[in-house]
Amino acid sequence: MFRTTRTSRLTGRRRGVLAGGAILAIAGGLLAVPGTPAPASAAPVEFVENFDGAPAADQAPGDWTVEHTNTAGMKPGWQGWSFHSTDEIVATWDGAGDRSSFSKGTGLVAVVESDKNRPTTGNFDSTLWSPQVQLSSSARAVEIGFDSHYKQGQAPQNARLVARFDGGDAKTVQNFAANRLNESAKFTVDVPAGAKTVQFGWSYLQSSNNWFWMIDNVRAVEAAPAAVTPVLESARKPVAPAGGAARIELSGLRAGQQLSASVGAGSAAHTVPVPAANADGRAAFDVAIPADQAPGVIPVRISGPDANPLDLGITVLAGKQPAYHSSEQQFWHSGFEGGPAQGEWKSTGASAWEMIDRAASLEKYGTDRRHAFTRASGTMAVAESSKAAFDGALSSPAIPVTGATGGPLELRLDSHLLRRGDGATSAKITAIYDTGARAELAAYGAEDRESEQLRIPLDIPSGAKTVTLEFAFTAPQGSGSWRIDDVELVRPLAPLAEAAQPSAVVDVFSDVQGSNLRLQSQVLPGLRALQPAAKTVVANGDLTSQGTDFQYTNYFNAFNRGGGDQYPTKISTIGNHEFFGANGSETYISRFLDRTGMRALGAEGADPAHAGLWGEVLVDGQLPVLWIGSEHHDYPSHVGSGPFVEMSDQQFTWLQGRLAHWREQNTPVVLFSHHVFNDSVSGTYARFYQGDFSSDTARLEGLLAQNPNVTVLTSHTHWAPELNDWSVEQRFDPAAKHGPTIVNTAAVTTQYGPVGDWEEGPVAGADPVGLRVGLYEDRLRVTAYAFGAGGAAKEVKHIDVPRPGEAPVDPEPQPEPAVSLGATSVAQGGELAVTGTGFQADEQLTVTLAPAGGSGDSADPASADGAPAARSARAAAPAASPVTAETRATANADGAFRATLTVPAEAPAGAYEVTVRRADGTTVAPLAFAVTASGTGPGEGPGGTPSPENGGDAGAGTDPAPGSPAAGEKVPAKTGGGLATTGGPVLVTAALLAALAAAAGGVVLLRRRAA
To answer: What residue numbers bound the domain in which 255 lies?
Structure first.
C-alpha cells in the first residue's frame, strides 16, 4: 500500500484516515505509484480522499491541484476552491442559504464560496483536480462517488463534474444546474480502450456573487460498466412539420452500441433503426413524418442492450400553410434570406453592406448594443464602421408598383441605428423610380434609434412602374453602424375614425407584485373610466410576490376596491412569482387556481389538477382570448431564474387545435402568456429573460409562425412601453412574409429599461401601465396607457394589427395604351380628332403634330410601290423650320381621352405624324396622316372628319369610351422663323392616302424619350 501522510495544519483538525490523495493499488504486494504504470497483472484500484490532510486553506492535499482564473479581490483563503471545516464556513459566511445543512461533510471539506465573495471585476473560474489515478489493464469503468452540497446561483454560473483520461480533454460526467443539497452522489464513467489513468475535476465556472459547492469523502473504484442512459443532444421536444423529418441526436453511448427507436403508439408503432454509436458515443438519425400525419405529438422510445430507455415525443406541426392575407395589403417583402444576393440586392460605393445573421454579427463586431436588435430575423443587412470608415449604399431590386396608385404606400423596415463617438454619421433612405425621379424618404444620424420599425409614406408618381429603394450609410471609423431587416411595401390601414367604436374590448395589466395601491387607485380606476367599458379583464401573471395566501388576500382586496369586481369575466395567468417558495410546484399551482377562480375557466378536458392554467373565452361574442401557463417550476432549484415554463403535451395540443380552428375561421386571436419569447419585445435579449419556455420553445415558436393572425401579449420584463420594441411583428420563420405580433404589457410595479449591454434598471417616476385591446372592423388595436393619480389616463402608444383577410383580387390587367385618329388626312387649317384608351386615370397627356420622320421639311410622299415620288419645284428651296402643333389632354377615370389638334394653316402639305407623350416622358409610337392643301382634296373642312366616300372610317372621330373628357386645351401652333411657302398646292394622290391609312392602322408601341 502506498500512502502519503501530512501533518495537521490546525490544532483540533484530525488527520485523514487515508491522507493527502492516498492511492491504493493492491497487486499481490506491489505498489502502484501515481504516474507509474501498473503491472499487467494489477488488480482494480481504489482511491479515497477526505481533505483532512490539506496543509492550509489555500493548499490542496497530496497531489490534488486547484486551477483558477480571475480570483483577485476575493477573500484571502477563499479564492476559488479552498479547504475549511463546515464550522469555519458557517462562522465566516453565516448559516443562511443552507450552508449549515451539510451534515455529510466532516472535518475539512473542499469548498468554493461565491456569495458576497466576488472578484474585482467579472466572473471567476475554479476547478479542483484529483491526482491521476492508475487504472488496471482490465478496467472497463470507474465509479466516482462523493458527498456533495451544491446550491445553484444565477446564470451564467456553470458547475460540473468532469473526467479526463491520460491527460486528454475533460469530458463532462454530470452537470449541476440545480440545487443538490447534502447528497451522496455516485456516477459510473466508462474507460476508453487502452486508457492508463483517470483524473476527476470539480469545475465551478463563470460565477460571481452566487452560492457555493462543498464536497467531501471522495472515492473512486473500478467497476463494471453501468447501463448507459442516452443523452438527448438535440431538442428534448423535437419538432417537425407533416411531410418533414425530425432529427434526433444522442450522446452518452458506448462506441459501437446499437439502439433502435419505436415511433408511434399501438398499431401505428414502427421501428426506426439507430446507427451504431461512433467512437465518441454519439449517434444521430431522422424520423420521417408522413405528409398526411395529423398535427400533435408522436411518442418515441429509444432502447437497446445495456441502455436505459429514453422516452420523448416528436411534435408534429401542420404542413405547408396557405398564404396569409390581411386587411393591410402587402405588395412586396424581403427578409434578406437565401444568400448574399437574395432578390438581387446590390451594394455600391466604397464600402460593402454585409448579409449576416445576428449571432455572426455579434461574434465579428461584439455587443455594444448591437445585440439589442431583436426585431431582426435570420439574415440582416449590416453597415458597420467599427473596423473602418463606411461609405456605401444598398439598393433593392426594382419593385413593381403598377396598380399601387390608389393612394400612398408605406415603406416598412426593421432598423437598428447606432451612433458612436463624435463622428458625423448619415443614414438616408431614397426611392428611385423608373421614370428617373428620386425622392428622399428619410434621413437619420443624430442619435441612436434602436430596434424600431420605420414606417415611411411612399407616394408613387403617375406613370411609375417600378421603384428601387436605396439605403445609404456614411460614417467615419468607429462612429456607428446601421442594421436593417424585413423591408416591405404595404398599403397601410386608413387612420381609425375618431367615432369608431370597438366591437370587443379587453383590459389588461400585469406584474403587480405587491404594488396593490397602484392597482387599486390608479390602474383599475383608469381602465374602468375608458369607454366603452370592458367586460373582460386579464391579469397577466405575477399577481403576487411569492404566492402566499396572505398576498393573494391583499391583492384581491385591492383588485375589488379598484373596481376589478365589476368585470363580468376575470382572467388570471400564472407568473413566475406565483411559484416563489419552497413548498413545491403543485402547492403553488393549486393555490393560484383556487384563489383566482380560474378552475371554472379551464379548457374542456384539461387535466383537472391544472384546469384553468390554460383556456379560452370568446370576448363580446367576437374576439377569441386564449391563455397558457406553466405546469411546473421548481423555485428552490432555480433560485429565481429560468426556465420558468414546463408545458404538457396536453396543453400544447389543445393550443394547437384552437389556433388551427381560428385560423380556418380567418379570425384574429389574442393569446396571453406571462412569460416571454427569446429576442422578441423589449428586454428579452437580456440573459435573465432567455429560455423562459425551455424545451417548449421550438414547438411554440413553430406553432406561432404558422399563425400570423395571433397577437401575443407577454409580460415578465417590466420594460417600459416608450421603447421602440414595445411591440414587434415576430417572424419566427425568417423567410416568412408575415408573423404574429407580440406586445409587452409593461407593469403595474416598477418599470425597467436598458443599462449597458446586458443589465436593466428602474425607470424613475414612471406611472403604472395598463393596456386596452379593441377589435375594430379592419384591425385589432392594442393601446398602452400610463395611469396617474386617481386613474388619469395618458396614451403612451398603440399598435394596429391588421385583421386576417381574404386574398386580394388581382386588378384587371392594364391594357396597352392605344391611340386613334379621326381622319387619315386634314386640310391646312382644319382640325384633327385624336382619341385614346388604356392610360392611367387622370394622367396628363401632350398630343403633338409634327412632320413625318422628325425632319424640318414636309416629307415627300411615297409612291404606291414605295419608290420616292417626284419632288416638286420647292424641293430646291432652302430648308425651313418645321411647323408643329400641340394640345394637352387629361385621361378620365377610365383612362380614356379625346383631344382636338388644329393643323396650322401655314403647315406645308405632306406626310405628318401625331404622337402622345405621357406624364413619365414615354410616348406612344407615332401615327401617320397627311396634310392637304387648303381647298383641295379629301378631308377638307372643319374637323377633317372623313366619310365613306372619301375613304375614311365612318366610325372614326366619334367620342371615345363613355365619360371621356372634351377636347384638350389648344396650344398655338409653333413656327420657325417664318414659314416658307412653295407656290401652288401639292396634290395628295390616292396611293399616298392608302399608304397613310395602312400606316395609321399599325400596332401601337411605346418608345422611351431619348435621354
So the answer is: 231-317
